[in-house]
Amino acid sequence: MTFAARVVSLLALALLAPACGGSSGGEGSGRPSASSTASSSPSPTVQVLELGKSDLALEAGTVASPAGFEPALAFQVPDGWSSVHRYADSFDVGVPDPASDGPLVVVTFSLAPEPDARAALAAVADRQPKAKVGPGGGRLLGADVDRLDLVGGDGPAYTSRDGTLALDAAPGRTLHFLATDSAGAGSALVVGVLVSENAGPAEQRLADAIVGSVRLADPA
After folding, report:
1. Domain holding 169: CATH number?
2. What pLDDT, on a 0 to 100 scale, did the predictor assign at position 220?
3. How many structural domains compose the chain?
4. Which of 86, 96, 125, 216 is the most buried (most CB within 10 A)?
């Protein structure tokens, strides 16, 4: 309803926000004058996720991974999103489904129990042999990475390294997984996107925009 009406503008916000929150200033369309540089507004506040399990509402802008999650990540979220699970090996952001007790769409970040990215995605495919699997490439942290798409299926699909995050396949549900070994975590970094059967293309685009904005966080 109101969410659907706002979704296009939220997508624009999610896509444009990274350009506003970058750490390398001075790349505007024109040459900045001394007065414009001096009067520029301060960088927006970064919301650092707190460890724990609760429904934590997020403001539109830059969000950083919880303390203890390595590698430290930062990304952009639109208005209306929240986080429920935040642990040292996994965390999530999403939008609840008004028609059910689950999420409409959720983006998860986690460390995999498998030794590398390809092994992590292969384990997902092995757990869901009856699901429609679409292997392919994706982009994460500015680099090409392995990607696995699951459509349908039933039961467990992925569990994080410490077991704090579990994603299940289900009829009508789509799961997208991107994995990389290049994040310096000592374990494969897996980003998952769960899209429920009640979600539409607009919700998928919002989730993709969040994934596209993910970067390694600046040192504190």
Report:
1. 3.40.1000
2. 57
3. 1
4. 86
Residue 28 included in any domain: no
Query: How many whole angstroms separate alpha carbon 152 and alpha carbon 188?
Result: 24
CB count, 10 Å around CB of 119? Answer: 14
Query: What six digits make up the tokens of 186?
Result: 């000592």
pLDDT digits (tens, 9 = 90+) for 120-152: 999 999 999 988 877 678 999 999 998 999 999
Q: Is residue 26 part of a domain?
A: no
Classify 169 as helix, strand or coil.
Answer: strand
Over 80: is that where the pLDDT of 18 sits? no
Q: How far apart are CA 90 and CA 112, in angstroms?
A: 9
pTM over 0.85: no
In a domain, 27, yes or no: no
Q: Look up residue 171 and give its DSSP letter.
A: T
What does the pLDDT look like over 78-134, one tens digit per residue?
A: 999 999 999 999 999 999 888 888 889 999 999 999 989 999 999 999 999 988 877
Helix H or strand E encompassing 102: none
Residues in the chain, total:
220
> For residue 148, what are its two tokens?
């696995």
Does the residue 46 lie in any domain?
Answer: yes
Domain span at 101:
2-21+33-216
